[in-house]
Amino acid sequence: MQGQNLTSGPIPKQLWSLAWPMMLSMFFHSLYNLVDAFWVAKISASAIAAVSISQIILFIMISLAMGISVGTSVLVGQSIGAKKIAVAERVLGQGFLLTIIAALPFTLVIFSFRNEFLIISGAVGDILPLATPYFTVIIAGSVLTFLMMMISISYNAQGDNFTMTKLFALSTMINMVLDPIFIFGYVGFPALGIAGAAYATLISQAVFIVLALRLLMKPTMMVPLHLKYLHLSWSSVKKVIDIGLPASLNQVLNPLGFSALMFFVSATFLEAGAAAFAIGFRIEFFTFIPAIGFGFAAMSMIGQNIGAGNHDRVRAVLNVSIWYGSGSALLFSLLVLIFAPYIVAIFTADPLVTEYALQYFRIVPLGYLFFAVAFIEASIFQGIGKSWPGFWITFARIGISIAISVITINVFGLEIWTVWIAIVVGSVIASLFGLLWLKRALTSAQREEQQTDQELAREEALP
Fold first, then answer.
1. Is the pTM of this model over 0.85?
2. Which of 33, 72, 96, 336 is the most buried (most CB within 10 A)?
3. What is the DSSP string of 349-409?
4. What is the average pLDDT value for the chain, to the nearest integer?
5. Cα 305 from Cα 157, distance rounded (Å)
6. Backbone φ and ψ of 31, nearest 5°
């Protein structure tokens, strides 16, 4: 049977077996954007700006898809843990149908007002006519993005991330081959320009989806996808939305928070401050991949063990995942602190940008550990079926960072380094706040289950 029973066995080994394929998948997924940027940059600087602006909207789209996927994944995982495979199969089928239904109106609205959305996102002047063809193609096929996210999380819930890693690698290689062919018109194909990158992405995603669905529908899967379950049940939809809505909002908060801080830094410290912040953010994405991998791995394990009622094991998963996430964050913190001058030199030679960026890399890495803990906490809340606390942890982290930045600079007239300190302080407070909330939530969940078991026992004892 393809998949893992995560309710027994060595926790560190299982956590690692789930996390490292997820990390590789994220790395391959990030290559989609890097490959597109590499080839599109050969057209013009405006072309790469057009792709970057389009991807801001695409990230929000992925966040919406993530909500439905996370909600479905948690319910599937809990059903597996409770040994209710038939229930898990129904939830999986309904999740896929809900994904398609949600994608259609989103596609219609964004497609109809695509120019307006691009302008709001900053596509002005020469950038708009370049962004429009790329964005039009991507949005027309946005259902593929929704399905890709749903499929990936479905495998994760069943403890099978390695299959996703192989498919992401194949999809990325297809994208790498097709990009130059479609953009510049090699081997007999017409030159499509920037739109060619979008077509290459959609084709590579389509190959991923066809192969993944073919495997997911095999009876050898722990929870196979059955076409007969592609219908909606309001009770299941409500549960998916209850878990998925705050998960979506949680995902949307990150780009919104980054945009708000970027706007503030850019307005106060002009191009040099914005460039330094952008450099730091690009590097941070890769340093956070381990924490995100351990977070999703923990979510899968927590989901199955909550369903099985293994609360002691849930606490053990919490502790091990935080230790692993913290360890990886500390390692990357040290690497960034040591190699900061070399990292900055890759991106800029401007003296002021270099000064700001070096300050960033000497301060912000001190908070990597706390960011990792906060992300894992949010993932564990999702695993136990309570996504709102994860949203508030992220909201606190971002809100505190922005508030401290505005106060220290606008009120006290301090320099840009206070923004970098504010980012660290936000992560520290949010992670500690989340840890206290999480331990209380786990105790409450265990108490509720014990009360339910006692009530059932009393009912069975009645004559």
1. no
2. 72
3. --HHHHHHHHHHHHHGGGGHHHHHHHHHHHHHHHHTT--HHHHHHHHHHHHHHHHHHHIII
4. 83
5. 12
6. -65, -25
